[in-house]
């Protein structure tokens, strides 16, 4: 009993009262803090951490070139909490700094961090987000340097793009009176055109013949044009160079034939040279993860091709074999193919020549395309196109650590093009939180979701700062759930509450999908304005309910709807489930507030949801900081 009492009370000093024969257990001498540690070891992980998919973690070194290998760098001593005490010699860096600094002040007022020991401004610590370890940190010093550099690019005219490519920009951005490049475009276009060719990249291209780029920029920042414009410019220049080369070769051949003909009077006349194009051998390939993105990027490429005159072939598994064949094996040839990796890899198996002329390979949404499901087909295409490849561009709004690590190993000299706001959600997007556990919902999330949609729908028209006028009458709301199985269930419930809602997932009927998305991506907007139709797909479903919410359309979707889709008309995003990672937060909230517009995200926090994570995301958004 006595021993038990002493064990349970760490401060108890009655150990000496114990009889000698009882062995003195070592833990009795430990402090309370030590006992606490013993109960909850430092490296213990919470249930949430155990469940967290370890690969979905954002990299904190996107902007930096990879570290030297272990064999190249000196071994660093591990830092213990009290390791700075009991030292008999000042560390060498302290001596050096003291020598440099005449004041002798060895400890600057600001926190020093980063591998290079440069001064960074003190930023807020996000503990819950740190547990998720999902966000990238670009030092604020680097962000300012990038900002200063991109300020020099004021307009598209100042970029060395070909004249007709400059003109084509008007076709790609038709509704805008004043067009200036976005930060992503200011960073990427000069680098991809070779104006700001980093020395690292140059030395690599001399070795391998491939210039590799990683374009990491926030959602809705115009990455599509950032890679399409320089690619189209390059393939047009190649085309001109090839035509000149061909003309020269033909002239040479004709001259040789002429002399041979003069010398050989009995020889047969050789057949005339044909200028037939080689079908299905594109110069550029754009890889994207979904058929919806194929259609979207294909539409931008097509809009540019009206002025520049090049042939773009968007092909996906949603097209019929006949359509794919016609687009790919066009008798006039094809310059750019926009597709998904599995489809192109399967075509390349039966037609190995298809990748034999590719000089530009763009991997959009690179974090998805280098994830487990797409990686085999993406790398296969990369390997097959390597002999002719000149430029490899990887592009994404989020760079997880597994991708950063993979790229550092595979392309150590990769040119990293990062925008100042990477991994931050724009401040013009507000985040609201609905506590589902409170009245009137009392844990009923579906009710909370329906009520939130009704409140948005009934509110008077939003003011659209980009238009300078009242926003469109129809309000479009995206609801994100974590599991695909829940999309139908939630959509059904919303319909029963008089809301025009649709589930959008991989198995949705393609025609219905296309129609629904068109209304959210702004393609149907013009039609609506002219014929006054609401373009609703689910109106008939909604009409079953007695009370109807007018002029509001809702799509209930998963990550499928969060990747790359340019939902310009969406002003409200509801996060029905708290996203598992900050990567998902960025992509889902990234569907609103695109390209300078304002937006609102609403998170429904129920039982078991990480309210602490939501709180820190909200704080980071308010401060305009990266979600680290
Ligand atoms: N320079 C510009 N000025 C105004 N609008 C632009 C400009 N460049 C692109 N846009 C528009 O911005 C919107 C978003 O572009 P885009 O889809 O390329 O973004 P993104 O960076 O790829 O987004 P995400 O990461 O979500 O895929 C599009 O509607 C596009 O037309």
From TrEMBL:
GO molecular function: ATP binding; hydrolase activity; RNA binding; RNA helicase activity
Domain Helicase ATP-binding: 204-417
Listed EC numbers: 3.6.4.13
Polar residues bias: start-end ranges: 536-550
Chain spans, region Disordered: 20-125, 524-550
Motif placement: Q motif: 154-186
Stretches assigned to the DEAD-box RNA helicase Q domain: 154-186
Domain Helicase C-terminal residue range list: 467-628
Alphabetized PROSITE patterns for the sequence: HELICASE_ATP_BIND_1, HELICASE_CTER, Q_MOTIF
Catalytic activity annotation: ATP + H2O = ADP + phosphate + H(+)
Record's compositionally biased regions (Basic and acidic residues): 113-125
Alphabetic keyword roster: ATP-binding, Helicase, Hydrolase, Nucleotide-binding, RNA-binding
Pfam families: DEAD, Helicase_C
SUPFAM superfamilies, A to Z: P-loop containing nucleoside triphosphate hydrolases (SSF52540)
Residue spans crossing the bilayer: none
InterPro entries per the UniProt record, alphabetical: DEAD/DEAH_box_helicase_dom, Helicase_ATP-bd, Helicase_C-like, P-loop_NTPase, RNA_helicase_DEAD_Q_motif
Domain of life: Eukaryota
Name the UniProt record assigns to this protein: RNA helicase
Organism: Polyplosphaeria fusca
Lineage: Eukaryota, Fungi, Dikarya, Ascomycota, Pezizomycotina
């Amino acid at each position: 009993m006595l021993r038990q009492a002493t064990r349970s009370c760490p401060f108890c000093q009655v150990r000496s009262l114990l009889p000698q024969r009882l062995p003195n257990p070592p833990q009795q001498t430990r402090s309370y803090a030590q006992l606490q540690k013993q109960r909850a070891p430092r490296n213990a992980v919470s249930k949430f951490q155990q469940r967290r998919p370890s690969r979905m973690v954002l990299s904190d070194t996107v902007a930096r070139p990879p570290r030297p290998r272990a064999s190249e760098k000196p071994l660093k001593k591990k830092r213990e909490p009290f390791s700075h005490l009991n030292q008999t010699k000042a560390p060498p860096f302290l001596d050096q700094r003291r020598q440099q600094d005449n004041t002798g002040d060895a400890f600057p007022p600001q926190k020093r961090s980063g591998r290079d020991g440069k001064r960074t401004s003190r930023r807020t610590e996000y503990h819950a987000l740190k547990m998720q370890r999902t966000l990238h940190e670009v030092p604020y010093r680097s962000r300012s340097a990038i900002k200063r550099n991109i300020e020099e690019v004021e307009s598209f005219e100042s970029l060395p793009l070909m004249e007709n490519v400059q003109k084509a920009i008007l076709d790609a951005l038709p509704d805008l009176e004043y067009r200036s490049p976005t930060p992503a475009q200011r960073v990427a276009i000069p680098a991809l055109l070779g104006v700001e060719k980093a020395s690292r990249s140059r030395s690599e291209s001399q070795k391998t013949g491939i210039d590799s780029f990683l374009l990491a920029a926030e959602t809705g920042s115009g990455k599509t044009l950032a890679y399409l414009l320089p690619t189209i410019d390059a393939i047009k220049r190649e085309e001109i160079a090839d035509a000149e080369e061909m003309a020269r070769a033909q002239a040479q051949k004709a001259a040789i034939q002429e002399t041979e003909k003069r010398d050989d009077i009995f020889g047969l006349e050789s057949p005339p040279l044909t200028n037939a194009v080689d079908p299905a051998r594109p110069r550029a390939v754009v890889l994207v993860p979904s058929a919806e993105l194929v259609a979207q990027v294909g539409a931008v490429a097509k809009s540019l091709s009206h002025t520049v005159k090049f042939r773009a072939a968007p092909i996906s598994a949603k097209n019929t074999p006949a359509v794919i064949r016609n687009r790919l094996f066009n008798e006039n040839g094809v310059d750019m193919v926009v597709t998904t990796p599995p489809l192109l890899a399967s075509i390349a198996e039966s037609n190995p020549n298809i990748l034999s002329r590719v000089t530009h390979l763009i991997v959009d949404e690179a974090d998805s395309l280098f994830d487990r499901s797409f990686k085999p087909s993406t790398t296969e295409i990369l390997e097959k196109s390597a002999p002719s490849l000149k430029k490899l561009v990887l592009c994404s709004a989020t760079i997880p650590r597994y991708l950063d690590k993979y790229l550092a190993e595979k392309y150590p000299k990769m040119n990293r093009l990062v925008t100042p706001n990477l991994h931050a959600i724009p401040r013009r997007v507000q985040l609201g939180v609905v506590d589902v556990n409170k009245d009137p919902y009392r844990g009923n999330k579906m009710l909370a979701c329906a009520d939130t949609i009704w409140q948005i729908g009934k509110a008077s028209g939003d003011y659209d700062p980009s238009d300078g006028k009242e926003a469109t009458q129809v309000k479009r709301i995206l609801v994100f759930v974590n599991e695909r199985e829940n999309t139908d269930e939630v959509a059904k419930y919303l319909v029963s509450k008089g809301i025009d809602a649709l589930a959008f997932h991989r198995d949705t009927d393609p025609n219905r999908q296309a129609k629904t998305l068109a209304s959210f991506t702004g393609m149907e907007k013009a039609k609506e304005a002219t014929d006054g139709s609401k373009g609703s797909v689910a109106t008939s479903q909604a009409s079953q309910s007695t009370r109807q919410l007018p002029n509001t359309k809702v799509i209930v979707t998963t990550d499928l709807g969060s990747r790359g889709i340019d939902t310009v008309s969406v002003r409200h995003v509801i996060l029905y489930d708290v996203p598992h990672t900050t990567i998902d937060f960025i992509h889902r909230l990234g569907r609103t507030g695109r390209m300078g517009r304002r937006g609102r995200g609403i998170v429904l926090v129920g039982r078991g949801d990480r309210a602490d994570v939501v709180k820190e995301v909200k704080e980071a958004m308010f401060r305009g900081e990266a979600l680290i």
